[in-house]
Amino acid sequence: MPANSNPVIAALPGGGWKAICGSGTGFDSQLPIVGWLVYADGTCRPFTFDWSGNQHDPTTRPDFRSLQEPIR
Fold this sequence. Notes:
Elements: E1 8-13, E2 18-22, E3 28-32, E4 35-39, E5 44-49, E6 55-56, E7 64-68
Antiparallel strand pairs: 1-4, 2-3, 2-7, 4-5, 5-6
């Protein structure tokens, strides 16, 4: 998904969602979604943080597989 050039108008909590990514070892890794950024055009994207504290959209990773909703 290409970067969104619209301004962020809100941030919502991650709510237990996870990004599933391939690890290259045959096992998938699960990254907790910290929150969702809501843009002025109405779209929203998940974000995570890496070990250095940098924000990332996990859907842009080459090994991204899916988003997993919380188990209730």
